[in-house]
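Bench notes, afternoon.
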Amino acid sequence: MLYPLIKRIMDIICSVILLFVFWPVALIVAAAIKLETPKGPIFVELSDRVGKNGRVFRLLKFRSMIPNARYLQFHDPRYKEYLKNFKKNSYKVENDPLRTSVGRVIVKYSLDETPQFINVLKGDMSLVGPRPYYPDELAEQKKRFPNTDGSIQKALSVRPGITGQWQVSGRSDLNFDKRIELDANYAANMSLWYDLKILLKTPYVMLSGKGSGVK
């Protein structure tokens, strides 16, 4: 099949172009993050994700939360109730209290995702595909939704994407079982036309902030 080769060539060409287009915005975002929380890193500290065939890779993403937020979520007793709601709501909390002011803006408009064009160039990701999951999130959700095992395996059979069917169909408004169903459907029916339809829908979702979990 020519599709995998064409998809990879498109990933490389489009990522180079988009990195060139977005680099001024990325510089502004990086500066804003440092100005708000000078002691924290620019990128997310703990960002291992599950990629194609279960391979774990480091996802590049601008930090949108307070420093060390991932550790605090799971280990600080002050966030016990927060963690309970976090897991209950499929690893998301609307208007997350750990999110910074800059973080709320960049998450709403998906600007925190722009460094992932580098992941695409490295071959960890594709422009279009299922969203990559945290390893612990995936394990937890498997327990909560045992009927999704087949969909999970199907979704993990392809490279994860910066955008995908889930992102243009509701993002954080959807629970895990619906999200993984959409990801599995993409993996089963992926094509250049399917990719193009998702890419054409993505700018509207970014600009509208729809489903970002931030108001």
